[in-house]
Amino acid sequence: MSFETLHPLYRAEQVGELDRRTIAGGIEGFALMQRASAAGWQVLRERFPEVRSLTVLCGAGNNGGDGHVLAALAAAEGVAVQRILLKGIDELVGDARRAADMATAAGVGAEPWTSDMTFTGELLVDALLGTGLSGEVRGAFHDAIAAINASACPVLAIDIPSGLHADTGAVLGKAVHAAATVTFIGECATGGRQGEPGHGA
Question: What are the structural domain ranges in the chain?
Answer without folding.
Answer: 3-198
